[in-house]
Each structure stands twice: as C-alpha cells, then as structure tokens.
Write a structure and sequence with these properties.
This protein has about 400 residues and is α/β, with parallel strands linked by helices. The protein is about 50% helix and about 10% strand.
Length: about 400
C-alpha cells in the first residue's frame, strides 16, 4: 500500500479505537527555510509531515525554489537526518495540471504541449520518489473568461494523466503512488453538489474503462469555505462532502488553510488533510523584517557597518517579478503596483516573496543581514526558522497529530 493511503488507514483505525479524529497537515515547501522548519516542527511534535509542492515551486526546470524533484527529495532526506527525524515524510505534487504552471499560461502553450509538460513533470516526480500526485486538469486557457471548463473534459484529462503515471511507474518498476484529484477553485467546476457527484461517478467509470479499477484517489479536494481572501472553514460543507467521498474510499482535502480561524474543526468534520502555504512565506518575511529593525538599531549605535535593506530589496524584487498580478482582485486589475492600497501592497509583498527568495539580490541581502547580526551574537537564521515553526505548531495541535508517530 502506498504511503499516504497507509497513513490515512492508520488514522481511521485509531479513530475507531480511541474516538480521536485526526487530519494530516501539509506544508507547501516554498523555501528552504520552510522545509527546515517543517521537519523540525514535525520532529518536536512527533508527527508525520507532508509536503505539497506545486510545479511552479519545484520542477525539472528548477521552479522558483531552484530545485528539481530529485534535489527536493535529497534535501528532505538531508534535513531529516540533520534532526534525526524518523517519522513519515511525504512528498507530493500539488495542483499538477495543464496551464497551472505560470510559464505554460503566460506563454500560452497548446493543449498537447501543456499536457505533455505535466506528464514529464509527473514522470520526474515518481522517479525522484514522490508519494502522491495531485492531478488537477481544471484550467483550460481556451475556455472563455467567466465560463467553466466542461466537467466531462476534466474527468477525461484526469484519467489520461493518472493512466500515464501508472503506465510509466509500472514500466520502470517503481513503487505505488497515491493520487489526489479535483480543486477547490470555482474554475474547476466542482463547486456544486451535482457536478461534484458527476465527477466522482464518471471518474470511477473512466478509470475502470482503462483497466485501472483498482486505482482510486485517496484525496479529493473540497471547496470548504477557505481561499486567499477568506479564513473561515465551513464545517457543515466539509461534513457533507466527506459523506459523499467516504463510500468511495476517499477523504476530503482542504486547500488555502492559511491563517484559518477554526483549524480545530478540520478533524471534527472528517477532513483527511489540509494544505498551508503562503502563511509560512508571511512568517518568514515578518521574521526577516523584525530582524532588520534590530539591524537598523545596531547600525545607529555604530555596531553595523552596512545595512542589508532587506525589506526594500524584497519589495523591489516582488514588484519586478510581476507575478503578484496573478493575485489581484477584479477591481485592482490593471493598476500599477504603487497604485494599490498600502495594506494590499504589504500583503502582496509578504505572500509573493516565495517567488523571489532565490534571486541573487534576495540571497545577498539575507546573507548580509545574517552576518551583521551574527557578529552581535544573534542567530538570525534560527530566529527565522523558529518563527515559521511557531506558526506551524497550531496545525499539529489543532489537527490532533501531536505524538502520532508513536501510535
């Protein structure tokens, strides 16, 4: 049995014997600091850790983290060895589908090229040792704006991508992998009950038609009230979706769990897993900004030779990247960066830093900031990682997975 399904089965058995419900916590590895913090937090909480990596973050071209799939798996192993973490360490593709990689969308790849690009990324992922593939063909740049992609086409492409992975995996003699399907986005067409049910029925039939009746996703993404602009988890919707998918042997997975107001409700409502991503970029940014304030104070005291200008460097890099435009509200589209409201500019910089952490200017500014503070006996890197860990801890606790490795 593949690793994620085995972990979910263990959690299910524990619930039957103890009555305690649990949800798997998944972190998006949008920086090396987040990766290190995740494994340190998992070690301290004695819990499994799951990494959900988009193809924008990690891919054969290096993504914005600079890592290929193989390098990512190697880094996870090294960081686990660093703290002697021996619990479940899960690596997964997140939102793997045509045109979900920014490069494919901005360059307007053809359907064939976009699908082939995803297939190549999936091959690299299973070769590297990933445990789960999120198959998400719910975006089509050929569909007019405001219209929803046909759910039958979503099913067709989902089956095609799963079959490709299974054929490739078997030909290479690789271990089984788990799957996640669907999306929480409205553009995915799974937002209403009837379409959600159609997707499940047709996916079951489609997999059987290609000889994959024994292959079924352990996670189906559900729209449970959270997105980048909302932070309240809808437990009633989650319960309803869970009741639909459990007879199929699946669990509901939540996305956009960042800074959710009621994380403790996830396990109570039967959620199998939840992804958290941009929140930890914000944690990293805030920690760096606080350290820069210390640096400025020490510079005025004559104890720092040259300032890093950390926040100014990050702000300029985010602006120049233009990737922030993807997260604009409808009433902000077309506005220049400087024309955005101050609080929106701050939010954009904080959450979009993940795109530019590996830029040479950002690396140089961070290196100078750390060196300036190290001279004063301050372990800046540890402070940054500890801040990210602190913001992760609430999910380990709320999801009832503290101590799970021992069970």
């Amino acid at each position: 049995m593949a690793k994620v399904k085995a972990l979910l089965d263990k959690i299910d058995k524990l619930e039957k014997s103890t009555g305690v419900k649990r949800t798997i916590f998944a972190a998006c590895p949008n920086s090396t600091a987040v990766i290190r913090a995740s494994i340190r937090a998992a070690k301290r909480n004695n819990a499994p850790i799951y990494f959900a990596a988009t193809l924008n973050q990690i891919d054969t071209d290096g993504g914005y983290t600079g890592m290929t799939q193989e390098q990512f798996i190697r880094l996870l192993r090294f960081e686990a060895e660093r703290v002697n973490f021996t619990g479940d360490l899960i690596a997964a593709v997140d939102h793997g589908g045509p045109w979900l990689k920014d490069k494919q969308r901005t360059e307007k790849w053809s359907t064939e090229d976009a699908m082939n690009g995803v297939k190549q990324a999936f091959e690299a992922s299973v070769l590297a040792g990933y445990d789960l593939i999120h198959v998400d063909p719910t975006v089509d740049i050929n569909v007019p704006k405001g219209e929803t992609i046909d759910i039958h086409l979503v099913v067709k492409r989902t089956v095609e991508l799963i079959k490709h992975v299974e054929d490739f995996r078997k030909a290479k003699g690789l271990p089984e992998v788990d799957y996640e399907v669907g999306t929480e986005e409205v553009h995915g067409g799974l937002a209403d009950d009837a379409t959600f049910e159609t997707f499940l029925v047709e996916l079951k039939a489609g997999l059987k038609a290609v000889g994959l009746e024994n292959v079924w996703p352990c996670f189906i993404v559900g729209k449970v009230g959270t997105d980048l602009d909302t932070t309240l988890f809808d437990g009633e919707v989650a319960k309803k979706l869970t009741a639909k998918v459990r007879p199929y042997g699946s669990w509901i997975k939540g996305h956009y769990t960042d800074s959710v107001e009621n994380p403790q409700d996830y396990p109570l409502c039967g959620m199998g897993g939840a992804n958290v991503g941009p929140e930890f970029t914000q944690s990293e940014y805030v920690a760096l900004a606080e350290l820069e304030q210390i640096e400025k104070k020490k510079e005025k005291e004559g104890k720092v030779a040259m300032l890093s200008n950390m926040v100014a460097v990050l702000t300029q890099l985010v602006k120049d990247s233009n990737r922030w435009q993807k997260w604009l509200h409808s009433d902000e589209e077309g506005l220049a960066f400087e024309a955005l409201l101050p609080e929106r500019r701050e939010w954009i910089v904080q959450t979009c830093c993940r795109y530019i952490w590996q830029k040479p200017e950002a690396l140089a500014a961070r290196s100078l900031l750390y060196a300036n503070l190290e001279r004063l006996g301050i372990d800046a890197e540890d402070i940054v990682i500890s801040r990210i860990e602190r913001d992760m801890d609430k999910y380990f606790v709320a999801f009832n997975i503290v101590g799970l490795n021992d069970k």
